[in-house]
Amino acid sequence: MAEEKEIKVPEKFKKLVEEIEKMSVLDLAEVVKVLEEKFGVSAAAPVAAAPVAAPPGAAPAEEKSEFTVVLSAVGEKKIEVIKVVRDATQKGLKEAKDLVDAAASSPQVVKENAKKEEADELKKKFEEAGAKIELK
Fold first, then answer.
1. At residue 131, what are phi and psi to the nearest 5 degrees?
2. Phi and psi dihedrals of 64, rounded to 5?
3. Which of 1, 32, 80, 108 has the fewest beta carbons under 10 Å from its own?
4. What is the pTM (predicted TM-score) of this model?
5. How confident is the model over 119-130, as pLDDT tens digits?
6. What total of structural domains would you count in the chain?
7. In a domain, 3, yes or no
8. Helix (H, G, I), strand (E, B), or coil: what is residue 113?
9. With contact defined as beta carbons under 8 Å apart, do 69 and 122 qualify?
10. Residues 38 and 70 in one domain
11. Number of Cβ atoms within 10 Å of the Cβ of 75
12. Is the pLDDT of residue 23 over 70?
């Protein structure tokens, strides 16, 4: 069993903490609901608001001109993908292979701040090699 960490409780809260320690989990959940309703608050973690879509007729948002090229899946032709990584990044064979190997477990950034045309061209080359690319 894990050690209990000794927490210093201010004297004014000792009685309240002792009462809470005696309560079951279901009772504690009910107390939380009562307090949320009573004080108009929520014990849930705050969630970031989703971006709101522009209303119809509003000026369109400026189109993105620079992209980050992310290798999300390698595919069947690993050697072809390594060649494309080498061409795109000017890295050596080992560095390109390491990046492709790492992409097998999690997405890897191939190139940052690529212009739209360059990013589209890289995406096309990677897809021809059988890899999946995301432009962010």
1. -95, 160
2. -65, 135
3. 1
4. 0.51
5. 888 888 888 888
6. 2
7. no
8. strand
9. yes
10. no
11. 13
12. yes
Residues 135, 68 contacting (CB under 8 angstroms): yes
| 71/117 same-domain check | yes
pLDDT of residue 113: 85
Rounded Cα–Cα distance for residues 122 and 128 (Å):
10
Domain of 117, in residue numbers: 66-135
Task: Indicate if 118 and 71 belong to the same structural domain.
Answer: yes
pLDDT tens digits, 38-49: 888 776 655 555
Burial of 95 (0-12, 13-18, 19+ CB in 10 A): middle
Q: What amino acid occupies position 119?
A: A
Question: Looking at residue 61, what is its pLDDT?
Answer: 54
Asked if 27 and 87 sit in the same domain, the reply is: no
3-state secondary structure of 87: helix
Cβ atoms within 10 Å of 81's Cβ, excluding its own: 26
Residue 82 lies in a domain: yes
Residue 24 included in any domain: yes
List CB contacts of 61: < 8 A, sequence separation 6 or more: 54
Q: Which of 96, 69, 71, 94 lies closest to 82, judged by CA?
A: 96
| The pLDDT value given to residue 130 | 87
